[in-house]
Amino acid sequence: MENEDDSRATTYTTIAVGPDFRHELEIRRSRFITVLRRSPDEETARSLVHDLRREFHDARHHCSAFVIGPDRMIQRSSDDGEPSGTAGIPMLEALLKRETSPRVTDLSDVSVVVVRYFGGILLGAGGLVRAYSESVSAGLDLAPLVLRRRLRLCAIDVPHAGAGRLENELRGAGYVMADTGYEPQHTVLRVALPDEATAISEARARLASLTAGHLELRPQGTEWVDVPR
Question: How many other CB atoms are there within 10 angstroms of residue 18's CB atom?
Answer without folding.
Answer: 10
